[in-house]
Q: What sequence folds into this?
């Protein structure tokens, strides 16, 4: 998404607290090889640039977004486990 002009504009307008990262591998190619999860680092660098922050801070923000989604699921799982 960050490679196309349209994709970059979408990323620039997306609220920071709603952004998650992924790769489209193996369908997306980087050069001649399929994209891998390690390629998310490129996306984090781009997000950091767009957000005027550091890549570690961009990673922290994205991880926080993921945790906000996963924490209710984790809590539910813990609650169900405690009933057994």
A:
């Amino acid at each position: 998404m960050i490679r196309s002009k349209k994709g970059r504009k979408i990323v620039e307008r997306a609220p920071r607290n709603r952004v998650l990262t992924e790769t489209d591998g193996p369908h997306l190619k980087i050069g001649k090889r399929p994209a891998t999860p390690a390629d998310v680092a490129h996306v984090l660098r781009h997000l950091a640039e767009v957000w005027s922050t550091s890549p570690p801070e961009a990673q922290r923000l994205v991880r926080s977004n993921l945790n906000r989604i996963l924490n209710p699921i984790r809590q539910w799982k813990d609650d169900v486990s405690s009933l057994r």
Summary: The first strand starts at residue 29 and ends at 30. Residues 5-82 form one domain. The mean pLDDT is 88. The two ends are 44 Å apart (CA to CA).
